[in-house]
Design a protein that fits this description.
Largest sheet: 7 strands, parallel
Helix content: 25-40%
Radius of gyration: 22 Å
Number of strands: 13
Number of helices: 17
CATH architecture of the largest domain: 3-Layer(aba) Sandwich
Oligomer: single chain
Strand order of the largest sheet: 3-2-1-4-5-6-7
Length: 395
Amino acid sequence: MRIDFKSRKKWSYPINVITFNLSRLFPFRDKRVWVFGAWEGKKYDDNSKYLFEYVVERHPTEIRPIWLSDNENTIYLLREKGLEAYLNRSVKGKWFQLRAGVAYYTNALIDFGTFPLIGGAIIATSWHGMSFKKIYNSKYHGFSLFLKKALDHVFSWTYRDLSFVPSEQGKKWFEDSFTLNSGKIFITGQPRNDLFQKNTREKVFSALCINPNKKLILYLPTYRQQSLGKDAMLTIVRLLYENKALDNVLKETNSVFLVKPHPLTPTIKLERRDNFVVLDYLSVENNQELLAAGDMLVTDYSGGFIDFALLNRPIVFYEPDEEVFLKYSEDMDIKFFDLSDLNKAKTPNELAELIAEPTLVVCDATNKLWEDESIKGTCYSENVYNIICKEIGLE
């Protein structure tokens, strides 16, 4: 078997079969030490960040929360704020991985480094968002699926003891995607969505130098694979940029169309206009803050609209390349198309028409699937915190 030495997950897998399972034997774990990591140790973001900050603020005497990362700048900035943080590869980082009673990740165990030593902790995750895409186990069938699940019991980068989702639809997606104990999937909501209770508009508009009196229409397209052409996204955005009907609607509604490409998309360079702005991916520090500031979302196949729907604001699907995109991408649950067909455009002119006549039809239908009645109006971070405490015996 050829080993991909560029992938940490692949070349370190056989070693982790041994080291991760040996870490389960460490006898001195502390239920009150919780470690957090995100985005393969590269970023301070997402559900891990929000739960970490919530525990720091609301439960500082009950829990010792520690952020672990591979990013030295992240560690420096957190320590400047008086928060406890260590590099995964440091002695203290490894020590607290072994001491942790709880380890909470966003992407995978690799959030805690190439060789995570958290096997004996209660490992929990809310993942990095919900989706309709078929990933991991849902891409396998027959004997391949049987073998995949067997290997997962030996070692899996997506292993967890506890999973947190916003609805029954989320439970089903997790069950289909990962090798899990279905009885340990809890409906709590995602900690990152607690931010929607705060007003981030002024901060976002100021950071992006946008007139605060404008309506903000966010366009967050997903990544186009190289098979679609390296300039596929540039072509889509340029056609919108040059479209007169869209330009007129933006002027009539006093709106600015803000394009935030996927981080893997090549840089799109178009001259900034008063009503049309293309961001570099690094221009925005926090995706959730950007969503919270938006008045309308234009999206395609990304799961970001599931979060945005919680704000009860209009959502439009813009899919000019639907047939060719779906041909080369992951399979999608049919429920996605039921939603996208409610308010979908395939040309710039059609998009302009839908922007001119905003509707909450997608928003309402999305929330019926993705926000359970039992958690409406609750604090999602507190929901997650309470279940973790109950599961480890800290009630």
